[in-house]
Design a protein that fits this description.
mainly beta, 1 helix
């Protein structure tokens, strides 16, 4: 099983809109109130919020288990460096403080050119800080009690993927992933001439990663892929434990099967849907790749104009015909890209990814069924919505297991600070 990987948040992700299709399930609009409220008062920690000076265009915030106790901690990289607040069984966050004077604005890091992430690089159960800086990749390893060691520069990581090597946020994607299914975290970049990667090395190695190499001459800027037009994701479509590339391009879905050596096969157009030619747009139509039927293979979930479309992954690396499984979470039901965030992830530990939507009156959930379709959504929480003052450009919302019970809670970086609500774990 691959190690944990977390991308620290810059701004709230949003979604919405595409062409209508055949009906499947009755709708629940973004404004609709349902009787399924299971509200619990959020635990609010007075830090990492707007009132404390945190800004989405300047600072990054997210969650990860930095001290290795099984609880998600809050990690904020602010002006002075890395701040932490530790999670616990009661959803209370404790011990916030500046633990490392690095990776922050004062040290020259900026939200656009310098992505920062969390991942357990050395396999000790604690999440380390990984930053894409000017000269390459920088790493600060987490130690006992949630301490962070002085960052190691490219000489001890990899001399690539930085600003000095030509990587730009408006052209290229950079992320961390276990490409080969060997339990080691790799650096992956969609660059000018294709996909580059640096394989993770075992703990105790002289360098955290091997030298980077080009793994596939496709999905790059020179092949016509644009971040503002196309979506590219890594996911295990075939169920073999190795990550494949899924690209939502001009003509539709292009997939390249991953190999055990970390390279990829020649891409193929596997589905003439979910692409630019079919009307899907990055700024309006979120597309996710997640396992919604618990068969071990990633499926496509697309939020179109009329609702949610699903295409199931197959063992040969292709996808089945798309079908509209839910007339909800689309523009026709009032969901807007500048207001409402939608996510796809497993909420209840059954191996099937659910839909979570932060709508107008609160938070909605649609659970995945055994057949891979989604049930009618219910408003499970009357908080974290537009009507409660949450704004994508000002506040961040995500899901993380703060209490350590194996199920996620809602974590919101709001006006007064950080709010944590246990409703997801308590309602199942």
């Amino acid at each position: 099983m691959g190690r944990r990987i977390h991308t620290l948040l810059l701004a709230g992700t949003t979604a919405a809109a595409l062409a209508a299709g055949p009906a499947a399930v009755a709708p629940a609009a973004a404004d609709q109130h349902t009787p399924a409220d299971r509200d619990r008062a959020p635990r609010t920690h007075l830090d990492f919020g707007w009132a404390q000076g945190w800004r989405t265009d300047r600072h990054v915030r997210g969650t990860g288990d930095v001290n290795g106790d099984g609880h998600a901690d809050v990690v904020g990289i602010g002006d002075g460096g890395v701040h932490l607040a530790f999670g616990g069984e009661t959803a209370e966050l404790t011990g916030a403080g500046l633990v490392l004077r690095d990776f922050g604005v004062a040290q020259g890091w900026r939200t656009g050119p310098h992505p920062r992430m969390l991942a357990d690089l050395d396999g000790n159960g604690t999440d380390d800080v990984v930053g894409f800086g000017n000269r390459g990749v920088f790493v600060s390893y987490a130690g006992p009690g949630g301490t962070l060691a002085a960052a190691r520069g490219p000489a001890a990581t990899v001399r690539n993927f930085g600003v000095d090597q030509g990587w730009r946020p408006d052209r290229h994607l950079r992320e961390l992933a276990d490409l080969q299914g060997d339990g080691l975290v790799d650096v992956v970049g969609f660059g000018d001439d294709g996909i580059h990667a640096a394989s993770g090395r075992p703990a105790g190695s002289p360098a955290a990663f091997s030298p980077s190499t080009r793994r596939l001459a496709d999905y790059g800027w020179n092949q016509g892929w644009r971040p503002d037009r196309h979506v590219r994701q890594l996911a295990d479509v075939t169920g073999d434990g190795v990550l494949d590339v899924v690209g939502f391009g001009d003509a539709g879905v292009q997939a390249a099967r991953g190999r055990a050596d970390g390279t990829f096969s020649t891409p193929a157009l596997v589905l003439r849907e979910f692409g630019w030619a079919q009307g899907w747009r990055v700024e309006h139509h979120p597309r996710r790749v997640a396992d919604v039927n618990a068969d071990g293979r990633a499926d496509i979930v697309g939020f179109g104009h009329a609702g949610v479309w699903v295409s199931h992954g197959t063992a040969d690396g292709t996808f089945g015909p798309p079908s509209m499984t839910l007339r909800d979470f689309g523009a026709a039901q009032g969901w807007r890209p500048d207001r409402h965030q939608r996510e796809v992830l497993d909420l209840n530990g059954d191996g099937r990814a659910e839909i979570v939507g932060f709508g107008n009156p609160g938070t909605f959930v649609s659970y995945a069924g055994f057949d891979g379709n989604f049930a009618v959504s219910t408003r499970n929480l009357s908080d974290y919505g537009w009507h409660q003052g949450w704004r994508p450009g000002r506040h961040l919302r995500q899901l993380a297991d703060v209490t350590g019970d194996g199920l996620p809670e809602v974590v919101g970086f709001g006006e007064r600070g950080t709010a944590v609500t246990e409703w997801l774990s308590s309602s199942r």
